[in-house]
Amino acid sequence: MTRRLKLTVAYDGTNYHGFQWQENALSIQQVLEEGLAKLFGHDISLIPSGRTDTGVHAQGQVISFTATGRIPVERIVRAAPSVLPPDIVVLRAEVAPPSFHARRDAVAKHYSYRLLTREANDPFRERYVWHLREPLDAGAMQAAAALLLGTHDFDSFRTAGSTPTHPVRTMYVSAFRQNGDELVFDIIGDGFLYHMVRNLVGALVAVGQGKMTPDDFGALLVARSKQGAPAMAPARGLTLQRVFYREEDLTQAVASRTIIQ
Among candidates 151, 140, 166, 148, which has minimal Cα distance to 111? Predict the structure, then answer.
């Protein structure tokens, strides 16, 4: 029996060289395909919703693939730990329509970036936050982040040398929220360029540090050039939170965002 399967996966990206297969380095895709091949009894070629970079994490990555193994779909989550390391976890498994494609069918993605703003770092969060000792001006950062809402050309926030692709994207959420001693940036959009979120966060932190104004940030956005852009934020603070496949789910998520006023 041939089935099209949709799996929702979480992982700690610290020990991997990104999601995509690498010739000389361990990737999340390699570990997933090799593990799932053991589970289903045949080679697996999976399609992700997108490729996270080295050191980037996921709470809701989605993959799709065709399988002929007989394991019931309701047993996949329980069986997956026997063939996967503890830092890669299958959260949900579903039978999808035969035409389902994890990347092409996605309507939006939600990324979050965590900033720890206090004097001392936290060893239990060090792999998942960008630690900054000095306080940040969250109000100025929110003012700058709000400029990203809507449809824009994001060429200023694309890493040089990336694969050519159209730079226009639409952002539905771009907001900061306070979570204890962390300042969290949430961004939901219909697509993202290579290193785009990390470049955005690097510039937004520069605003919070007083090195740029929100107006400077806006000027960088419309310049469509990385000239004068701040350094990119480190990978460890970034997490792919969710991939949306239904417009109604996206609408609900956008309406529920809590931001710093």
Answer: 148
108-255 matches 3-96 in CATH topology: yes
How far is Cα 259 from Cα 127, in angstroms, rounded to an integer? 25
Distance CA 152, CA 168 (A): 5
Pairing mode of beta strands 108-117, 130-132: parallel
CATH number of 108-255: 3.30.70.660
Q: Where are the domains of the chain?
A: 3-96, 108-255
pLDDT of residue 32 exceeding 70, the answer is yes
Tell me how far the alpha carbon of residue 13 is from its chain's centroid: 11
Cα separation, 252 vs 81, whole angstroms: 32
pTM of the predicted model as reported, rounded to 2 decimal places: 0.94
Catalytic residue among 12, 43, 53, 155: 53
What type of residue sits at position 41? G
d(CA 66, CA 6): 9
Active-site annotation holds for 53:
yes
Provide the sign of the torsion angle of the four alpha carbons 231, 59, 135, 156, taken in this order: positive
What is the CATH architecture assignment of 3-96?
A: 2-Layer Sandwich (3.30)
pLDDT at 178 over 90: yes
